[in-house]
Prior knowledge:
Helix content: 25-40%
Distance between the termini: 35 Å
Structural class: alpha/beta
Number of strands: 8
Radius of gyration: 16 Å
Largest sheet: 6 strands, parallel
Strand order of the largest sheet: 3-2-1-4-5-8
Amino acid sequence: MHASATLREVIGLDGQPPRLAESTLIMIDYQNTYRSGIMALPDADRALAAGARLLTRARAAGTPVIHVVNDGGEGTPYDIRARIGEICDEVAPAEGEEVVVKTFSDAFHRTRLEELLRRAQAGPDLILAGFMTHMCVAFTAQGAFNLGYRPTVVADTTATRPLPAPAAGAVPAVALQAAALATIADLFGVVVATAGDLPA
């Protein structure tokens, strides 16, 4: 099967990843939600370890970091007042790093994320990492693109889960992961395999 040109290629958008030191890192929903229980992701620990490596590299480069958490309310797997909804210890915010609370998949929708970026006079380049690839990572990439930012997703820092297929059976997590990353790369942003693919 031959893949067609991406929409980015068709309309002439830049496909090069930005320099890490000239970007803002957005860490999306790295919550305990996804490590155990009903929302556990098959590849969560691997992606979390990759996210921790990216975060370490970003901090060393002086890259601004913003953490995003999803608040689903008390008693849900996304309860940010409980341990289940807290940010994973491996990527916990450092002093001075902002935390944005969202209630929608797009981290820009009805949050203060864009306000924080404007106040910091951040450039257009955003690096996205986190959970879940097909949901909050993809919709935040789309939201960023729609607002004029240039998002780049680091693939190995993301993970998702298998889903029921509307017709029958299930969509495996690996297939949904590939489809979500391909959707992002088609128009909304650049996708790189690992943090090592980002120029310092």
